[in-house]
Write a structure and sequence with these properties.
By secondary structure, the chain is an alpha+beta fold. It is built from 5 helices and 4 strands. The two termini are about 25 Å apart.
Length: about 150
């Protein structure tokens, strides 16, 4: 994938702040016409730089009050098991990692009991031999990828 230029970075930063920003406003911020901004954003999507446009929802408003990070230990390579983990809707991120565990999962659930159910379902995945969950008590902030030398999100 090719690297983005400064104009692309300005467009991405503006879209990270508000993905509904009109192309005219995006163009003004990046020194482009609305049409040129639209074309740049289209190309960023085609190239996979902008992977998706989404809405940032407060998990507590949806009853997802429990956030936990789960380290998954395994008796085998887990790199082929992505679909099995993706089938558990409470898992919002899954990363193959180096270290004493094989995977790091970000899990959101409604209650500690539901988190326990997720942990039980993890053991049904072939190769999973252990888990270690860390429950988050408070989140100071979450943000997206840094652009323009600053952080957005």
């Amino acid at each position: 994938m090719e690297i983005v230029d400064d104009i692309d970075r300005k467009l991405i930063a503006a879209l990270q702040r508000d993905a509904t920003t009109a192309y005219a406003a995006l163009g003004k911020e990046a020194g482009l016409s609305a049409g040129a901004a639209h074309e740049r954003v289209r190309k960023l999507r085609e190239r996979g730089v902008i992977r998706r446009t989404t809405v940032d929802v407060d998990p507590a408003a949806l009853g997802q009050d429990v956030l936990a990070y789960v380290m998954v230990e395994s008796s085998a390579w887990m790199g082929e098991s992505a679909a099995a983990f993706a089938a558990i809707p409470e898992i919002v991120e899954a990363h193959v990692i180096a270290g004493s565990a094989s995977l790091l999962l970000k899990v959101r659930s409604a209650t500690p009991g539901r988190l326990q159910d997720v942990l039980r379902r993890l053991y049904a995945i072939e190769g999973v031999s252990g888990t270690q969950a860390t429950v988050v008590l408070e989140t100071f902030f979450e943000r997206g990828v840094a652009v323009e030398g600053g952080l957005s999100g």
